[in-house]
Specification:
single chain; 222 residues; five-stranded antiparallel sheet; three-stranded antiparallel sheet; 2 helices; elongated
């Protein structure tokens, strides 16, 4: 969760920097007519690419300037020979962009969108973690505890195993069988489980969803 939040903040800061940079450019830029002289294809024909318009315009001093737009598309949004509007820096005419929202603010918008997604995921994951920790504290303070035998289970993803302890319990109050799974363990806890039981704290009103398997007897790293 922290990684998502940090990445989201970093991307959002990048978007803010891009926005401020464009804002300064627009404030000093002059508008001139231009023409699309060519479409430059970038990318692989097999995996896909975009057409970037190459634009030519003249400054009031009569200097001819040619530049390639930073924004491309497929199919192309422009045709060769099409008349377009250009914003350029009078002090550095080669610093030029086509007018239009995506040409000017597209990068900042993409960064802001990605940053928001990462931050929402990070904050959401953090809130889930905080609620889970709060639930554990509440169950340990107001719930009940039972000592149960446990077996070692694991999940495997891309060759990496994550272990956990699983206990079964027949609730004498409702005669239902419940499964209690511990939090994941990064190593095989078999050497530390011989002859051991685990303590499970549970909410008697909702044992299926509100419980905690205590694995504090295990070392942090084996």
């Amino acid at each position: 969760s922290t990684i998502f939040l940090v990445v989201g903040i970093a991307i959002s800061l990048g978007g803010w920097y891009a926005y401020q940079s464009q804002k300064k450019f627009v404030a000093i830029a002059q508008k001139m007519p231009g023409v699309v002289k060519a479409l430059e294809y970038r990318g692989s024909r097999k995996s896909g690419g975009s057409n970037y318009p190459v634009v030519e315009f003249q400054t009031p001093e009569g200097k001819t300037v040619s530049f390639r737009s930073d924004v491309g598309s497929n199919p192309s949004s422009y045709d060769v020979g099409e008349q377009v509007e250009v914003l350029y820096n009078p002090s550095h005419p080669n610093e030029a962009k086509l007018t239009g929202f995506w040409n000017l603010w597209g990068l900042a918008t993409i960064f802001a969108g990605l940053g928001s997604v990462f931050m929402i995921i990070g904050i959401g994951t953090m809130m889930i973690f905080i609620r889970h920790r709060r639930m554990i504290e509440e169950v340990k303070m107001t719930g009940q505890a039972v000592e149960l035998p446990a077996r070692i289970e694991y999940t495997q993803n891309k060759g990496r195993k994550r272990y956990y302890l699983r206990s079964e319990w027949l609730n004498p109050a409702d005669r239902k069988m419940y499964l209690f799974d511990s939090a994941s363990i990064s190593y095989d806890p078999t050497p530390f489980m011989e002859g051991r039981s685990v303590r499970v704290w549970y909410d008697p009103h909702n044992p299926q969803n509100r419980y905690y398997v205590d694995t504090s007897f295990l070392p942090e790293k084996a």
